[in-house]
Design a protein that fits this description.
Distance between the termini: 49 Å
CATH class: Mainly Alpha
Number of helices: 10
Number of domains: 1
Oligomer: single chain
CATH superfamily: Hypothetical protein af1432
Strand content: under 5%
Structural class: mainly alpha
Shape: globular
Largest sheet: none
Number of strands: 0
Helix content: 55-70%
CATH architecture: Orthogonal Bundle
Order of helices and strands: HHHHHHHHHH
Length: 180
């Protein structure tokens, strides 16, 4: 039977060859960062750790849900935890993509995505906040015009999330004082 270390390796392998936008840092560092932020701000929670580590599997790799179901069959997790992990990863995957909604512009898609995320469970919203915080740390590597758009999108998203998590407040603090 496999354990969390195997899941980390599975995620690392799935993102192999990917790099953080605008840098040569392996994308896997972002996954580690999101998981570490969740542990720091939320405490140790194995379901949250699995979701945080795998939050971009369906969005940024060729994997599909069936691949994740097959992989998790080999883990020492109760069935309910496996379902929570799978649904958490799905909830954190962008639904309003340009491929699925070509008639909508980016601003419209991001607004709909924010509304959708605002209806997700608190744990999912907290992981999304950890994802945002990790991404904010790497904005200095990106084009100034993109950064401006990204910051406005995240301000809107954070304004509609229903969590009072410390992670959300940390993101808002950074947006207000570092990216004004």
């Amino acid at each position: 039977m496999r354990d969390y270390k195997d899941w980390v390796e599975f995620c690392k392998k799935a993102h192999e060859g990917q790099f953080r936008k605008g840098s040569q840092r392996p994308y896997f560092e972002h996954l580690l960062d999101v998981e570490e932020l969740m542990t720091y701000f939320h405490g140790r929670n194995h379901v949250a750790s699995y979701i945080a580590m795998g939050h971009d599997l369906l969005e940024d790799t060729p994997l599909i849900m069936e691949d994740l179901v097959k992989e998790l069959r080999h883990y020492q997790l109760v069935s309910n935890d496996k379902q929570l992990i799978l649904s958490g990863i799905l909830l954190l995957t962008d639904h309003f993509t340009s491929e699925r909604f070509p008639s909508l512009n980016r601003k419209e898609r991001k607004k709909l995505e924010a509304e959708r995320l605002s209806m997700t469970p608190p744990l999912i919203q907290e992981i999304k906040c950890a994802d945002i915080l990790s991404n904010l740390r790497g904005l200095n590597d990106l084009d100034a015009d993109f950064v401006k758009v990204y910051i406005e999108e995240k301000r809107h998203l954070l304004s509609v999330l229903n969590t009072n998590a410390r992670l959300k407040h940390k993101c808002l603090y950074l947006l207000d004082f570092k990216f004004q």
